[in-house]
Model the fold of this input.
Amino acid sequence: MSGLLLKGKNAVIYGGGGAIGGAIARVFAREGARVFIAGRRQAKLDAVARDIAAAGATVETAQVDVLDQQAVDKHADAVAATAGGIDIAVNAVSVQHDQGTSLAELSLEEFMRPIDGFLRTLFITSKAVARHMGGEGPGVILTLSEPGAKLAVGGILGHAVSAAGKEAFSRVLAAELAPRNVRVIGIRPHAVVDAPAAGSYTKELFEQAAAAAGQSVQEMLEGGAMAQGTLLKRLPTLSGIAETAAFLASERAGAMTGTIANLTGGAIVD
Done:
């Protein structure tokens, strides 16, 4: 096969101004998709849009609160009206949360923050786009989770429960939308080695663990304790995640649904 993976597809990326969302948006645009990126911070969306436009591709931005169901519905309706439908949707929304605090010190608010935040936005965005997908033209919804969905380690209660919930959501939604010709696939990356340089909050998230290991966050990601805990002895990159997302969203992965793409470098084997 040759040619662009996503030629002629309309793709909406929620969290499109973030590190992972922005990387996916750039690759989708390169592969021929008409890209619509939405998020809370216009400046970050504009930075991604400038890169895409400079490469000669089509992109539109929208400042949308992804926890506001009416706003997300309105945006999805507008995209579908403008583009003639939605073929691909990616939820790359990030919710800041605690890692490293044990049950005895963990507040109910901090425990619930990622569970409510991640699952609420996943429900809102999936419901908004699903009604504009499927039929004769196949649709694809991609979600993102974390290794915490499978890891049994202390100090990540809220994080782990939210990650497991996102993966369960994706599997069940795949069963529900399959009769409408819509695929749903989760992507489970590990900590991303170049995410701090792209402006994510990875540095803040892992500062405590890195300090305990006597390393900087970047040292831990590039070859330290976290990287050494994988079979490949390395963590995923933004480029690798984005390229995988483009493949999964394309017809080359047309037989895949209801599954999780494991990009943990072998930190989890399943």
Observations:
- Residues 108-130 form the longest helix (23 residues).
- The two ends are 29 Å apart (CA to CA).
- Residues 140 and 249 are 6 Å apart (CA to CA).
